[in-house]
Amino acid sequence: MMLQIKPILAALKRHKAGTILIALQIALTLAIVCNALFIIHERLDRISRPTGLDEGNLMAIGNRYVGADDKDTAAMMRGDLVALRQLPGVADAVSINSYPLRGGGWSTGVRVGAEDKKPKAHTTLYFSDEHTLPTMGTHLIAGRNFQADEIGEADPKEVGDPAVVIVSKALADKLFTDGHALGKPIYIGDTKKPSTIIGIVERLEVPWNGSWSDTFYENSIIEPVRLSGNYTNFLVRSKPGQLEALMKSAPAALYQANRMRVIPPERGVRTFAAVREHAYKADRGMAILMGVVCLVLLAITAAGIVGLTSFWVGQRRKQIGVRRALGATRRDILSYFLTENLLIGIGGVVVGAALAMGMNLWLVTQFEMARLSLMYVLAGVLALLLLGQGAVLAPAMRASRVSPVEATRSV
Amino acid sequence: MFRYYLDLAMRSLMRNKVLTALMVVAIALGIGASMTTLTVLHVLSGDPLPGVSGSLFYPQVDPRDMDGYDASKPLPEQVTWIDGMNLLHARRADRQALMTGGAVPIQPAQSGIEPFYSDARYTTSDFFPMFRVPFLYGHGWNPSDDESRARVVVITRSLNDKLFGGKDSTGQTLRMKDTAFRVIGVLDSWRPNPHFYDVNTGRYSNSEDVFVPLGASRDAHLDHDGSTDCWGTGGGDEEHAETEPCVWLQFWVQLDSPDKVAAYREFLTHYSQEQKALGRFARPVKVGLPGLMEWMDINKVVPGDVRLQTWLAFGFLLVCLVNTIGLMLAKFLRRAGELGVRRALGASKREVFAQLMVESAVIGLAGGLGGLLLAFGGLWLVRRQPSDYASLAHLDPTMLLATFVLAIGATLLAGLLPAWRACQIAPALQLKSQ
């Protein structure tokens, strides 16, 4: 095997342009495929993040009161909740300012000391009542839920600081690194008034899923306040298997309770599965696009290798015949072409690996992206070398079948 | 001669169908992907007001307190009510408008239509002439209507179709949030892309359906939507938004000459110094006056994913081209014998080169056609996405032409090296080895 490398290099020197072109193609393909795979990985990671909710049995309704004074909406909301909770098939329901994957909500900083200038963590605020945890299906891992007498009602413009709050575990860990968050006071926003943590839930995502919220995507606070005002969201949790029926009966029950409302015809009533699909549509689309580009790119590179090697085999039939006549076995010929391709491939992937990392460094400066891990480059290198060997196999087999008689023809 | 070369090219391409197909498909895929993404990028980064945008500017001042001051951080993206009103009333620009966005409940008089919410823009009178907004019926309001906080409204053509059956509705009454407004104008179709004057309320969304004088919107307590950025004691209280330390309005000016731009910048600096002397401004004086397109760049209105896809597509095209160069090289060199005979029979190097370039161009043309079909397919897919710019993704004549220029240009470039190499063949050597 080693003995063959010298003559192969000598032969490649006579085909400089073709050799460089294949190597260049391999290098570019490697650089693009590595980065594309990495982007796919990032997107899939994001898509598979759990919200912490019992998504299979949840639906969301967007609701806007029309023609009602903002002062009266608190009472209308109470009526709506009674109507929803009484509905057959409903396990529980809440009115809430936002929910995970919805895309819009309230965010602020949290401090652990009243005099702290800088917030220790960033968080989202959910405003709802003691039915929130049973409706969402979020697991309480420490402390207790709100009690009915702790629930307040407030206009969104006049929300004060609640005496008690429930926080997500991620936020609790971030604020109190010693792990003892329960019962501790925290300061939400710029306030000097403390709010005591009375409960910690296992997981509760923020309403956003864009990369800008990546630094705090599991930091949530639930405040025991129902917000009045003209816009709200109802989250409804169905008893198992009843969600389908509720999609019709829940909005109907709301309209029956009170007609002074608009539920948007588009995306007004959605199962949580639909919420999730909508939230991640762009990410999924990007991942699929990247995947298709990778596959097509690899196919084109493989086809290019097949094409160029076939040409070389055709060009060297006489030389192959001579070698065969002088005693080279079929296996020798086969391994000649495989080794030749491997050498070109190695040249290509060395350049390609550098190119992939350079391209990633540039992408990091231009787009919100992380640094490429070396594992991706290694996997890409391996994949392209194997692809090259696979592509060259057919023409190489054809070469190995050249009969020694060819040497005697038309010389 | 060209027809002869064309005939030779077709014969040569038909001789090896698989190789030809591979080259054409590679070019088509590369062109298709590039043109799809380039078209989306072209649409999204286009000029929202061609011919006008050059004279539109977005003044910025910094009214924030010293908390978190960092000289390298950008200026606030909007203005406070006080600064907006001061700059508006100074009337130092050729035209100026102060505005913000919102959503209003519309209560149609017709019993057949349920109440619904519509996006609205609360602005001052220069909005319409400054942005060259076309009117179907009626007109916009006057500066005096701004001052008197007149309850007048301008609606879009689509809302007019919905509420008034497309008839001239000027003089009619429109009820919004329990307040009666008089319709004084109906816009003709108008959808600037991007939605440049307020990038916080949907960057490529439809423009608003309802336009109300800013003052009247405050009187009628119409809800404000969009970004509100507060500092110090500011809590974003809607009712007292005029005095809160919050930025929530956009201020645009029209400046018709470079001298006026320089003078306006000067004016902004003086204004800031004056406010600082009065104690309202705390930070070192810094002002901004970006032009419309510059403001779009600063805000990165073109989504990152779209730019990423465009780069990816061009990388893809590059690989396709390298692939085609390799295949063409193989193909041309394989015909060394044939080319040797032609050379020996008297064809000059130049003639052989021309023949091979014609062959490349044929591949380019076929690839371009295929790429165009793929681009149409790709754009159809883009239009089916949920993004707010989806409906804008169409090929215009410029991009159509660009597709062919790119396809043929790229393949000719790709054919250059192989053709040149093939020309270098010594005819005698080839004839000898036959």
From TrEMBL, chain A:
Residues 30-242 form the MacB-like periplasmic core domain. It is found in: Cell membrane. It is a multi-pass membrane protein. Its main location: membrane. The chain crosses the membrane at residues 20-40, 286-313, 334-362, 374-394. One of its GO terms (molecular function) is transmembrane transporter activity. Belongs to the ABC-4 integral membrane protein family. This is Peptide ABC transporter permease.
TrEMBL record, chain B:
Keywords: Cell membrane, Membrane, Transmembrane, Transmembrane helix. It comes from the Bacteria. It is a multi-pass membrane protein. Residues 20-266 form the MacB-like periplasmic core domain. It is found in: Cell membrane. Residues 313-426 form the ABC3 transporter permease C-terminal domain. Its main location: membrane. The chain crosses the membrane at residues 311-333, 353-380, 400-420. GO terms for molecular function: transmembrane transporter activity. GO terms for cellular component: plasma membrane. Pfam families: FtsX, MacB_PCD. This is ABC transporter permease.
